[in-house]
Design brief:
Helix content is 27%, strand content 18%. With 439 residues, the chain is of the alpha/beta class. The strands form 4 sheets. The protein has a 10-stranded mixed beta sheet, sandwiched between helices. It has a 4-stranded antiparallel beta sheet with strand order 15-16-17-18, covered by helices on one side. Helix 5 packs parallel to helix 7. The termini are far apart.
């Protein structure tokens, strides 16, 4: 029985023996600040998320899916390039007026996912949050995207003031997300009266309508479930049974994202593109539980930390006819893998400088030995099932993630030689990285 289970894990993302009908479309759906335990396919029973669950049910769920940073901006830099963002100094988060610094953004020498596919003749679209630089040279339309609808900073209100039709719960120190951060269509500021999550679903669907006849890349980067907490009043009625207004708001915001995703999936079906589309869903980092109620259970910690709750996220991939449905993959996967997987699926060359691997090749995933994280003074390194983590000035802690995914028992005293070895391995990788481009 154990042998069969290991076999099942090993082949969970393998290609089926059916040739694609054409080069696949690539759809990447990214949630913002969504906790590890907050979807139906992750075990949440508070509220239903049928459309997001369908991606996992029709493909593969990665139980150990990681991002490369515990905050939005650097995590997106890793996702977009398939490279540790610390290799090129894009290490720290950018918020508020720092977004307006003309020198801050994804370095121009780094190629984005959109660059790779645009050069190969794909149409490329970004719908939603960018957060990789606001100066013109960093604008999405200058980084490989043919179309852009969304905003450039770290967040945005979901309705324009005075927030008619919304239930709003603002913190006393809620940042002015919309300041110098208009919604844009291309480079042009626009007014949007629809709930922003709904608008992003609408725009993503319209992108598919315009581009369905040839292969395309669609990067749908929701700002849900990021603060501020705002949801349509009409949607709130579905969650009266949940305890607490904050939790009901969170549920409604998540449901709106699920509905918008369902709209996109339906549009793919209407154009008979399900078998021609590789779809990946994940979150950009763990949930900030106190701020949003976003649960990372059963993991420790959350957004901003290198404990599992900050960097292990919901992660699912679907490609009908190619990835066998209903699979569960228990080996580590990373947001860094999305680009090399998409390139391989499309028959395009994968640059040798990428840190990610092709998840459609089981041998590649099985051969992965380590993952690395650095965020300022915080460091972590995973090799096989062992992980060391240092938060700030604390000493390194050692955990066996196979036995203790919640990182409750520090094994430093029990395994001092292993801890020393892992620290040395981390230091070796760290020497390959560049210092942050900004503080």
């Amino acid at each position: 029985m154990k042998t069969n289970m290991r076999r099942r894990d090993f082949i969970s993302a393998s290609l089926a023996a059916q040739a694609p009908r054409r080069k696949p479309n690539i759809v990447v759906i990214l949630a913002d600040d969504l906790g590890y335990g907050e979807l139906g396919f992750q075990g949440n029973s508070d509220f239903a998320t049928p459309h997001l669950d369908s991606i996992a049910n029709n493909g593969v769920r990665f139980t150990q899916g990681y991002v490369s940073a515990p905050f939005c901006c650097p995590s997106r830099a890793g996702l977009m390039t398939g490279r540790y963002q610390t290799r090129f100094g894009h290490e720290l988060n950018v918020v508020g007026k720092r977004n307006l610094d003309p020198g801050i953004g994804l370095p121009l020498e780094e190629r984005t996912m959109a660059n790779h596919f645009q050069q190969a003749g794909y149409r490329t679209g970004l719908i939603g949050k960018w957060h990789l630089g606001c100066a013109e040279k960093f604008h999405p339309l200058n980084r490989g995207f043919d179309e852009f609808y969304g905003f450039l900073h770290e967040g945005h209100f979901y309705y324009p003031p005075p927030y008619r039709g919304a239930l709003t719960r603002l913190r006393t120190n809620e940042p002015p997300y919309d300041e110098n951060n208009p919604l844009l269509r291309g480079r042009d500021p626009i007014e949007e009266n629809s709930y922003l999550t709904d608008a992003l679903g609408r725009e993503a669907s319209a992108f598919i309508d315009r581009n369905h006849e040839k292969p395309f890349v669609l990067y749908l980067a929701f700002n849900a479930i990021h603060s501020p907490m705002q949801a349509p009043v009409a949607l709130m009625a579905e969650f009266e049974g949940l305890r607490g207004e904050q939790r009901r708001l969170f549920a409604a915001m998540t449901r709106a994202m699920d509905n918008a995703t369902g709209r996109v999936l339906q549009r793919l079906r209407e154009h008979d593109l399900e078998q021609d589309t590789l779809i990946t869903f994940l979150s950009d980092n763990g949930g900030p539980t106190a701020e949003l109620t976003s649960s990372n259970k059963p993991l420790r910690g959350g957004k901003g930390q290198l404990f599992e709750g900050g960097i292990r996220v919901p992660f699912a991939m679907q490609w009908k006819g190619q990835i066998q449905p209903g699979r569960v993959n228990n080996q580590p996967a990373s947001a860094l893998d999305i680009l090399p997987t998409a390139l391989a699926a499309s028959g395009l060359n994968t640059p040798s400088n990428l840190d990610g691997i092709n998840l459609l090749n089981p041998a590649k995933q099985a051969g992965r030995k380590s993952l690395f994280w650095r965020y300022g003074p915080n460091l972590a390194f995973r090799r096989d099932n062992w992980k060391i983590v240092r938060q700030g000035t604390q000493d390194y802690q050692l955990y066996n993630l196979a036995e203790d995914p919640g990182e409750a028992k520090d094994l430093s005293s029990a395994e001092p030689a292993l801890k020393t070895d892992l620290i040395a391995a981390l230091a070796s990788v760290n020497r390959e990285m560049k210092p942050p481009l900004w503080n």
